[in-house]
Write a structure and sequence with these properties.
The chain is mostly helical and about 290 residues long. It is built from 8 helices and 6 strands. The strands form 3 sheets. A two-stranded antiparallel sheet has the order 1-2. Strands 3-4 form a two-stranded antiparallel sheet. It has a two-stranded antiparallel ribbon with strand order 5-6. Helix 3 packs antiparallel against helix 7. The chain is globular, with a radius of gyration of 22 Å. It starts with 5 loop residues before the first strand and ends with a strand. The N terminus is likely disordered.
């Protein structure tokens, strides 16, 4: 089963007035971030260990003062584990602990897997063109791969999408109907519909250069296209897991809309991945 969420331990050393943060077992990687909280004395140890890692997953709060009296900021080293997930539970952004088999973590796992698949596709395309460009420069040959024809749009778009998928994870990890989800958390994890609009504009621009689609397509052509189709299929699964949470009111409708549009984007981007290098899409042929 996908593991999803990392949590961290806030350890206070009163004698030196130092604060260090130790990252708990990596029960995740796809999303969850949030505002920094000061935990009250007497809270359960597991709760203390959870919240700050959500920020780490979002790239927030990764630099801390090692001492309140120090003039310089120091980067704190993090452990990958603190064992709070050994009991089979993990923490959401609102500090609510649930079993790792909970459907929320299933959705988060699929969100993380979508992000991984997008990253693999993006890195493959970049490395492919770097390799070919280096070979062509050494041999003096000129091919259609001399310039990366995806640098101006597809690759930057995929990089943006990876960050937005972390935002999706934050939204999923902050159930709106839970009593533990405070108004500040809801505001911080709000997912704006402008992200949906951005993807639609990218799709529209791509489709202007593509021939009309007249057949069902099989994933294939170039490796880049195949990887994008793989990401699309995983994204559809993620959407299916998130949709019940949208219907229950735990997740904003805009999150479901984004995942729906993202799978469309990945399909069209896969066609672009083939078209721009002169490779035909693989058409379905009825038996």
């Amino acid at each position: 089963s996908p593991q999803f969420w990392s949590v961290c331990l806030e350890k206070m050393t009163n004698t030196t007035n130092e604060t260090t943060f130790l990252v708990d077992e990596q029960t995740g990687g796809g999303g969850g971030g949030g505002e920094q909280h000061t935990t009250r004395a007497g809270e359960e140890e597991a709760t203390k260990k959870d919240h700050h890692q959500n920020e780490l997953q979002m790239g927030k709060g990764t630099t801390f003062n090692s001492s309140a009296n120090d003039a310089k900021d120091e980067m704190t080293k993090f452990k990958v584990y603190t064992k709070t997930g050994d009991d089979g539970t993990s923490s959401l952004y609102n500090l609510e602990r649930r079993k790792k088999s909970d459907l929320t973590f299933e959705a988060l796992g699929d969100c993380d897997e979508t992000n991984v698949a997008v990253g693999i596709a993006r890195v493959h395309a970049r490395d492919f063109f770097l390799f070919n460009n280096n070979n062509n420069n050494n041999s003096g040959a000129t091919t259609s791969a001399d310039m990366n024809c995806f640098d101006e749009d597809v690759l930057p778009h995929l990089e943006i999408i990876q960050s937005r998928l972390l935002d999706v994870g934050s939204a999923v990890a902050t159930p709106m109907t839970s009593e533990k989800t405070k108004d500040g958390m809801k505001m911080r994890c709000r997912f704006d519909e402008s992200h949906v609009d951005a993807i639609e504009s990218w799709i529209d621009a791509y489709e202007e250069e593509l021939p009309a689609l007249t057949n069902f397509l099989c994933p294939g052509g170039t490796k880049f296209a195949a990887f994008l189709h793989q990401a699309r299929a995983i994204c559809r699964r993620c959407e299916r897991k998130v949709q019940p949470m949208v219907e229950s009111g735990d997740v904003e409708k805009s999150v479901g809309m984004y995942l729906n549009r993202l799978s469309d984007y990945l399909f069209v981007a896969a066609r672009v991945a083939n078209h721009r290098v002169g490779v035909e899409d693989v058409s379905y042929k009825k038996a």
